[in-house]
Amino acid sequence: MSNPIGYPVFRTTDPVQALRVARQLVAVGDVRYAQVSVDVELRTVPEVLRIREALPDAWFRKEDVEDWTRDPSDPTGLHVGVHAPGLSSDPGFLSSHLPLWASMLDQPLSSVEEEFAALVGPNIGEIYWSSLVWPDVPDREIYREANNARVVLLFNSRSLEFDDRAGDHTVLVHVRRAHRDGSDLRHASWLAEQIGQAVIGPPQE
């Protein structure tokens, strides 16, 4: 089974420009079955309440393994996720569970991207396009790819693990990971070239 690998191809402090470039990259592929997901980390109660109001279809969750270990019964529901209308607005409750993550998964293309990019603010977050198909380019020894064809736009982070905070936004293109022949870099470079960009850093998995 193949695994995806992501190469950064664009970075900017302008979220609108980052979204524009990410969408250009998505359009290189076949988007007939494509979907888009969004996810954002919220570290304050006002931010949780702001996003809950702005994205009433979002789901809120905790990413806290230690809390899960302490009480696997999940009395708050925040380990599996709470739909925005059911999320308590009590500041005391919310502050005791920060940070929270808000997500909307597997949405139709162009249904949430612009709104989310305007909402994310200083928070770490991502827009994630999946179920794309990269085209065949036989003369470059690049072949149709569906299983690993993805585009990710990271907000305020340069890491897919969200383990660092940055003052800019990064677009990554995902392709099939190669073990020895360098075809993943060749594929990512070709995709970036189609929108006038280039690979700008090491890959991430």
Number of helices: 6
Strands across the major sheet, in which order? Answer: 1-8-7-6-2-5-3-4
Averaged pLDDT, please?
94
Proportion of strand residues: 15-25%
Estimated radius of gyration: 18 Å
N- to C-terminal separation? 15 Å
What level of helicity do the residues show? Answer: 10-25%
Low-confidence stretches: none
Largest pleated sheet: 8 strands, antiparallel
> How many β-strands, per DSSP?
8
Instruction: Say what oligomer this is.
Output: single chain
Question: What class, by secondary structure content?
Answer: alpha+beta
Order of helical and strand elements: EHEHEHEHEHEEEH
Shape: elongated
Can you give a write-up of this model?
It is a single chain. With 205 residues, the chain is of the alpha+beta class. The chain has a domain at 4-41 and 52-57 and 103-193. It contains six helices and eight strands. It has helices at 15-26, 45-54, 65-70, 91-95, 113-119, 183-193, and strands spanning 4-12, 35-42, 59-61, 82-83, 100-107, 125-130, 150-155, 169-176. An eight-stranded antiparallel beta sheet has the order 1-8-7-6-2-5-3-4. 34% of the residues are buried.
